[in-house]
């Protein structure tokens, strides 16, 4: 096989991973089956490793396959599977020019490795992880960074463009594009995503894969493994003419033309050097065998390849008005603040400690949540849990009939829950504040919280202080699952009259009691026809 084919294979696989993962994170209609999502997140190194530590098994061992491939052929993951790395290549290809108005690319130059920096960051990441903090992994994991970039920067633009198009088409009585309700973005997550985009974009345009070889802990780890890879790219001195074309196209800046050496620990296996070398002087060297003259075939075709991109998110209608609240507003502003002892973690998290120590903040669950109740955290989990998903019941509610987030988590922070099991998983307990309720403050009938409670844990009871006709909410904490439907539906401002206090450890709620009919219905008598 001609080595030039390797680049074609690499480009093809990398585009498939980039397009599918981009579409998955951009998706707002849950168009992708969980099997497809899990298939493309399975080989992502950090999430797979963390999930394996929680739920060991073949289905969670993608990192093992990636490690084996690295030990055989070097950092194939960085150029083929990692979506952030592929995104950097696109930035570099599109914006790396020699000068204004000129189409020729600016050549790369050989640079010395920043080993102290990259291995220092790797050591710090490992030490903090062993000590019980996942903060640096959360911050620097390339898959999670990619997810946050799409979710916080691209997705709002996509939503806005969809709604603008929907509004225009409605003027012409065309309703094929439905408007989508957007719950907003986290300013902290947006700001950090924008900062990372600027940093990574600047690195890729100026120095190619500089981020991968200086900051990324996954790149540093694979760099260590690549030093002992079985098959390594090398320069055949007898064929090399020192033309420098391989270095010109080396995005890792790891080819020393003067000494005819390749720093394989920094090589990201893009194979640009193979296709650019006019003398076929780049080859794979078997580390276990002495170097021999490789057999080369005819020069490979170095015609420029076109990049094909596409979108796979189909626009479907999203039902609006899931909570058609009564037109009730409190005349007097509420005065008692809601005070959560613990934030509400997503279904499948089990315990806050497990969740915070396993979640990398990739925000895939935020993307796939159909009600958008999952939002990037600000400081709900503390400074170390920034950008991890949290249940935001001011934005929306947790659908009682949905368990998608538990089925797609790539890191094992959310463990799979069957739908029936999820229905009785208590994320928290609703707390009622009478002094904030319009029934008490304004002597007005409401009951929005009870109407939307799926388990009827919130129910209305006679209000003794009223005129005998009013009813006020009461909470049965044994059957409450903490879905937040009551909190979302509550109309009081600025503080809610009912809110969900999260559980540090999720527990099993009791089954709701089935109400029996007082009188049996004689269907023959009532419906003689």
Question: Strands, helices and their partners?
Answer:
Elements: H1 4-26, H2 34-41, H3 45-54, H4 62-73, H5 76-80, H6 83-95, H7 115-130, H8 135-140, H9 142-171, H10 187-207, H11 217-226, E1 231-235, H12 245-248, E2 255-256, E3 261-262, H13 272-276, E4 282-286, H14 352-356, H15 364-368, E5 374-376, E6 389-391, H16 404-408, H17 419-423, E7 425-432, H18 438-441, H19 448-452, E8 458-462, E9 471-475, H20 485-489, E10 498-508, H21 523-526
Antiparallel strand pairs: 1-4, 2-3, 5-6, 7-10, 8-9
Shape: elongated
Separation of the first and last Cα atoms: 79 Å
Uncertain stretches: 293-326
pLDDT averaged over residues: 85
Biggest sheet layout: 2 strands, antiparallel
Percent range for β-strand residues? 5-15%
Number of E-state strands: 10
The total count of helices amounts to 21
Percent range of helical residues: 25-40%
Q: Can you list the strand order of the major beta sheet?
A: 1-4
Number of domains: 2
Q: What class, by secondary structure content?
A: mainly alpha
The gyration radius over C-alpha positions equals: 28 Å
């Amino acid at each position: 096989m001609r080595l030039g084919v390797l680049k074609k294979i690499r480009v093809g696989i990398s585009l498939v991973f980039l397009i599918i993962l981009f579409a998955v994170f951009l998706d707002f209609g849950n168009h992708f089956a969980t099997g497809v999502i899990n298939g493309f997140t399975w080989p992502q190194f950090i999430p797979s490793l963390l999930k394996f530590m929680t739920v060991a098994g073949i289905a969670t061992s993608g990192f093992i396959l990636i490690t084996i491939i690295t030990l055989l052929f070097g950092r194939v993951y960085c150029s083929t599977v990692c979506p952030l790395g592929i995104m950097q290549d696109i930035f570099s290809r599109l914006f790396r020019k020699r000068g204004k108005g000129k189409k020729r690319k600016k050549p790369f130059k050989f640079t010395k490795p920043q080993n102290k920096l990259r291995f220092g960051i790797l050591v710090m990441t490992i030490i903090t992880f062993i000590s019980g903090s996942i903060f640096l992994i959360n911050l620097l994991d390339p898959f999670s960074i990619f997810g946050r970039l799409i979710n916080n920067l691209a997705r709002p633009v996509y939503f806005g463009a969809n709604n603008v198009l929907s509004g225009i088409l409605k003027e012409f009585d065309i309703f094929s594009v439905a408007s989508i309700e957007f719950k907003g973005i986290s300013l902290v997550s947006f700001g950090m995503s924008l900062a990372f985009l600027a940093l990574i974009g600047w690195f890729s345009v100026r120095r190619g894969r500089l981020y991968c070889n200086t900051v990324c802990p996954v790149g540093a780890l694979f760099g260590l493994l690549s030093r002992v890879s079985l098959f390594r790219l090398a320069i055949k001195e007898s064929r090399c003419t020192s033309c420098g074309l391989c270095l010109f196209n080396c995005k890792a800046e790891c080819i020393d033309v003067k000494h005819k050496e390749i720093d394989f620990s920094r090589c990201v296996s893009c194979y640009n050097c193979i296709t650019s070398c006019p003398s076929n002087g780049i080859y794979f060297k078997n580390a276990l065998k002495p170097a021999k003259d490789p057999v080369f075939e005819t020069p490979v075709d170095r015609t420029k390849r076109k990049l094909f991109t596409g979108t796979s998110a189909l626009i479907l209608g999203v039902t609006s008005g899931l909570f058609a609240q009564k037109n009730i507003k409190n005349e007097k502003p509420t005065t008692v603040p809601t005070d959560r002892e613990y934030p509400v973690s997503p279904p499948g998290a089990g315990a806050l400690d497990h969740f915070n120590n396993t979640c990398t903040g990739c925000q895939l669950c935020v993307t796939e949540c159909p009600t958008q109740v999952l939002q990037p955290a600000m400081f709900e989990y503390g400074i170390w849990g920034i950008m991890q998903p949290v249940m935001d019941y001011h934005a929306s509610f947790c659908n009682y009939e949905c368990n998608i987030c538990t089925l797609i988590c790539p890191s094992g922070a959310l463990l799979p829950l069957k739908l029936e099991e999820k229905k009785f998983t208590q994320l928290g307990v609703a707390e009622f504040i009478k002094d904030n309720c319009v029934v008490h403050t304004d002597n007005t009938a409401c009951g929005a919280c009870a109407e939307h409670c799926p388990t009827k844990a919130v129910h209305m009871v006679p209000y003794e202080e009223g005129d005998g006709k009013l009813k006020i909410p009461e909470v049965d904490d044994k059957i409450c699952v903490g879905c937040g439907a009551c909190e979302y539906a509550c109309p009081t401002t600025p503080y809610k009259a009912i809110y969900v206090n999260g559980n540090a450890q999720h527990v099993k709620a009791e089954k709701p009691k089935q109400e029996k009919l007082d009188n049996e219905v004689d269907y023959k008598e009532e419906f003689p026809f």
